[in-house]
Amino acid sequence: TVEPIDEIAVGTQVSGIVDRLYVDYNTTVKKGQLLAELDKSTLKARLLQTKASLASAENEQTYQKQNLDRVKKLYDSGMSSEIDLETATYKYNNAKASVDRLLSELEQAEVNLSYASIYSPINGVVLARNVEEGQTVAASFNTPTLFTIAADLTKMQVEADVDEADIGQVETGQRVYFTVDAYPTDTFPGTVTQIRLQPVTTQNVVTYTVIID
């Protein structure tokens, strides 16, 4: 098979409904170009909910800090017990931990919202588009592939299956000539760049993969 040297699968790290697609098969794309967007309504709602919870937790932290300061003053003047001081300290520490937890959740909610916009990681050409607008993608167990992008179709490689009886005669750096059905009268030159050591067995036939540049 003749295939691109660099081929990247572009996926999504969040689940949702594909809201918009901006590219199609054979579209030339630039690094950082917006390829698709997932529906952001649920992610935005989660972000607003987390912000509201954080504001409430910060308010509680401020109150517990003021209460702790009051109890400390009373304790220092002998008007409050050690148990009151420990209780106030405990409540303040809990309030502070809640703020820290919600700050982390807010950061994650913002990251998840940013993941709803899918950008191209490289300059290249879209070889495959695996989704349609309105389709639901689930990233719960694995990362769904939305697009396959080839970096440069002017640089290709041949992946050849060489029989085990012949592989001993193949060496890295050897010159190779091959033909393709699309151009039956042309012969193309290449060079062996890699002989993969893992054998492939198909219907009791053992072959080795050889990469030709």
Describe the SSE topology.
Elements: E1 2-4, E2 7-11, E3 16-21, E4 28-29, E5 34-38, H1 41-76, H2 82-115, E6 117-119, E7 124-129, E8 136-137, E9 145-150, E10 156-163, E11 175-180, E12 183-202, E13 205-212
Antiparallel strand pairs: 1-10, 2-9, 3-5, 3-8, 4-7, 5-6, 7-9, 10-13, 11-12, 12-13
The count of strands amounts to 13
Helix content: 25-40%
End-to-end Cα distance = 12 Å
- Spans with pLDDT under 50 lasting ≥5 residues? none
Rg, nearest Å: 30 Å
Please tell me about this protein's structure.
With 213 residues, the chain is an alpha+beta fold. Strand 11 (175-180) and strand 12 (183-202) form a beta hairpin. 33% of the residues lie in helices and 38% in strands. The protein has a five-stranded antiparallel sheet with strand order 1-10-13-12-11, with no helix packed on it. The two termini are 12 Å apart. The chain has two helices and 13 strands, in the order E-E-E-E-E-H-H-E-E-E-E-E-E-E-E.
Briefly characterize the structure.
The protein has 213 residues and is of the alpha+beta class. The protein contains two helices and 13 strands; from the N terminus they run βββββααββββββββ.
Looking at this protein, list some descriptive labels.
single chain; 213 residues; alpha+beta; four-stranded antiparallel β-sheet; 2 helices; 13 strands; elongated
